[in-house]
């Protein structure tokens, strides 16, 4: 995977890939700061910061930020994860300079106006209510709490009413001051623009930012134990989550687990769980298995909704498919087809240049480089049926799986 890279004296890195056959340029700041970097009293602060970045800088008010790119047909957005916060934009190539300048402004010069904090506080509280009214979203957050109990990885990215209700302007400035590290800040660009032009537009501004180092260190997670929890809710359909801790970003087996998870419950309609629970028995509308890798650990979870009277039968089908993976090696043709499917999905994902821009930034922060697709494909193609059997027995040991079930009151 060809890309250009430049590290500035202050530690900020600029990564770029030119794509001549598009009219767009996608650019973004990716910061190695996420919800896991909050204390318990700061729960939800990074997500609140993400919202507040659009509410005022030293030279712009909220309207001017929103209107700057939207009026040109561009898009400005942001998101927060457990380990990253990202501010990014997509514009026609002739407007790259405007998007880059705006991204620098909102990422590094936010003023967090008190009046806007009060307004946005209500918006976030409404966002929380929306998620609570959506059990398929809510159960994923609550399952994080179950698997990573007592650790920051288990806390809700949105925070809670108590913490969000108390944040002040001072809290934002103090948190950013303690967590911001210019060596953990990447400006990523993918689109129809040369690296020379990118540097011409942003190198001077980014180089003028004072070098900043943070003494903060993330606390690792090592204390997983399986749990089983049932919650009664005002819902009409039951929802279930089954999973556990898994491999980190740096584990050499992570791509093999990606392949195994794809076979079990990936996005394709021919996943084993979809064929069993939906196509054969009609117990669910959708079922998915998710593998998420973090810097020091990981997570695998199976999620589905079903009628209350079919919960136990659906769970048994899930465990049956898990046991098949743990007891029966894939045949030669099955393994070949599974590999080709996973490789095809990854290749198609690379065609999404906005997502690719974010992947570049995240990979650079996590590993100091961007893994080439060819190297990932080699790992997948070298995976044996014995490898998958070993991983299935390690990751999907029934005695180590946690269960969370929502049942209608």
Automatic annotation (TrEMBL):
Protein's UniProt name: M16 family metallopeptidase
Domain Peptidase M16 C-terminal: start-end pairs: 167-341
Family: Belongs to the peptidase M16 family.
Peptidase M16 N-terminal domain segment(s): 14-159
A Pfam family this chain is assigned to: Peptidase_M16
